Amino acid sequence: MWSLWRPCRRAWHNPIFQGGLVAFAQQPTHRSYSLNYVATLSAVLLITWPKEALVNVRDLPFTYNALGTVILMILAYLNVAQGATRLLGSQYVRLHEWLALAPVSAGTFLRGYVAASSLELALFWGLSVPLVLCAAQVSGEPWQHWSAGLLIILVCTGSYRLVGITLLFYCEREEFLLYILVRLLYVGFILGSGFVVPLYNPVLAFADASLWPPRLASLPLPGLILRGWVATVVLHGLLAAGSVIIAWQRIRWIQRRAARHEAREEPRMYG
Questions:
Q1: Cα(158)–Cα(169) distance, rounded to whole angstroms?
Q2: Using CB atoms within 10 A as the burial measure, which of 12, 86, 132, 147 is most buried?
């Protein structure tokens, strides 16, 4: 228990996380976004509810899969776009300048920034849980299926947020390029991957972990065969890990460059 408490305590005292927590609490749009999100999912749940008065287009109940598809489409875009949106800094101080002046290591900064940015992910994922459980109940999905579905939503959309954060550290000054990359990545993650690399598609993975017939092929490994949705979760975990490593290297480069620039300026100031 103590081994789990220590990282949480360390994260809570992280100055970057505390600053991001204050910024998150002061953000006025979260309430309206949350209400719109819940209203959209509730509408999907109502339309696909398997009653005689409503349309049932398949023999198997499709309420669960329809809701999961909508959740993934919304949260995938939200997390890529918001991950690529500056959380700290201001209109006049960019993240690069703020980072160069931050008296913390690259690892401390990245841990605090990712934790603060993930608060929004936790909020919308938490709002999704009761609606997913309701859809699973009416569709006859066992707990193994809806727990796997929630895991797929959390891991896949979380990895997309880390990709967005990494893009921000590299392309903050090129706002138009960042705008284009976010939308291209969203189309690639949700639509393109379904045709090119199906194991990377979260929507197919969500359906694969339900009562519906398998949508993904298994991934054979030496001495192990992974189900399609499990392979999708593993691949997105690797995407998240790679994004963190790349972002950490970028932060270290920014801080080292700032330190070298400051070292060159000191002799001029005192000489």
A1: 17
A2: 132
User: Which residues are within 8 A (CB) of 156 and not within 5 positions of it... i.e. 6 or more apart?
Assistant: 72, 76, 202, 205, 232, 233, 236
127, two tokens:
């709002």
Rounded CA separation 29/125 (Å): 17
Per-residue pLDDT tens digits for 27-83: 777 888 899 999 999 999 888 887 654 444 445 568 899 999 999 999 999 999 988
Host domain of residue 52:
2-270
Q: In this structure, are residues 19 and 103 in contact, taking their beta carbons and an 8 Å threshold?
A: no
Residue pair 45/70 in contact (Cβ under 8 Å)? The answer is: no
Split into its structural domains, the chain has a count of 1
